[in-house]
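Support case: manganese (II) ion complex. Customer-provided input:
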Amino acid sequence: MEDDGTPRATVLIIEDNEKNLRLFTDVLEVYGYKTLQAKDGATGLAMAQEHGPDLIVMDIQLPGMTGLEATKRLKADENLRNIPVVAVTASTLKGENQILWEAGCDDYLASPVNLEKLVEKIEHHIFGGRSTA
Ligand code: MN
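Agent response - structure generated as follows:
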């Protein structure tokens, strides 16, 4: 705890878009998080199992297994279901929210992602009521 270099928490980012992956990684590292990266759902699930991250940022539009399917599988696994999942979705259509909740997502952000909001939501889901507003 005395070590300033100690990460505050670990966030797994599952995102196939290189630019977003780098952007999310950079901003979270600035905020003191350790990050892990995966570019598809299957790899993401394996990394979640191996590392037990504190939170997962899940792109919904992934090649192969979608982010929805990956989230459903996470939430069906009793060892992983307590990890909050913040979805990133290109669609902001009204009906989409329901699909996200049904898959077990804990929160979501529309793409292009507002990075301040991303950090805010991550802080909220990992540290709870430590919000400023
Ligand atoms: Mn994508």
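The chain has a mean pLDDT of 92.

Case will auto-close in a few days if no follow-up is received.
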